[in-house]
Amino acid sequence: MSADPIRIQLINPNTSVPMTEKIRATGQLVAGPGVSITAVCPSKGPSSIESHTEEILAAQAVVEAIGEAERASGPSPDAHVIACFGDPGLDAARETTGAPVLGIAEAAMHAATLVGRHFSVVTTLDRTLGRAEDLVLRYGFERACVGLRATEVPVLALEEAEADAVAVITDSALAAVREDRADVIVLGCAGMTDLCQTLAEATGVPVIDGVAASVGMALGLVRMGTRTSRLREYAPPKA
Ligand code: 5HY
């Protein structure tokens, strides 16, 4: 095996440093030793992404983070993960680099359909459900997705997941299994990454965290030597 490790960059497009650290920790756990996981977040911008306006700023932060990593001296990342459930800037990111770029929503929905028939998304605020619904349609999961549930737990309340927040999210996941007939739960926020195990134990069904799913899939693509197609849509944009 080459001594050069596989490098995956996780991009949290909000400015929360504790959330970025949680995301990095999950990534490293999934990737295991011998894979270099870095997690970055912007120094300026929204502290959480919960609106369409913040989504646009997040998309810009994603594209900038990829550009910076590619321009930096030393080897560039072999893959990038957009660690925000709206997958902000995913298409632009795929124009920016030939390295695979995975969004956590897209990766989580794919993973969910590999281990069950029906999934429900359990997420933060009701106002984000429109974006989640758009992504379900865009990725073609409208048959598999049987529920989109908001908990009204804001993103930043997940920084230190307190018992109250965990209880509300657990109740929502249990309701999804019971009422939506979901047999898999998809977590709708990168800040829920550390709740995956707890929720799986509470619900008895697979709980998919998109951060973990996208790191696993990114690693697979890198090992397969598969990069983003540069033909047509994802060709590099004009300078
Ligand atoms: C996320 N926002 O994963 C999304 C979740 C959401 O700052 N990180 C954020 O509520 O849409």
From TrEMBL:
It is an enzyme of class 5 (isomerase). GO terms for molecular function: amino-acid racemase activity; hydantoin racemase activity. InterPro entries: Asp/Glu/hydantoin_racemase, Hydantoin_racemase-like, Iso_Racemase_Enz_sf. Its EC number is 5.1.99.5. It holds the Pfam family Asp_Glu_race. It catalyses: a D-5-monosubstituted hydantoin = a L-5-monosubstituted hydantoin; D-5-benzylhydantoin = L-5-benzylhydantoin. Belongs to the HyuE racemase family. This is Hydantoin racemase.
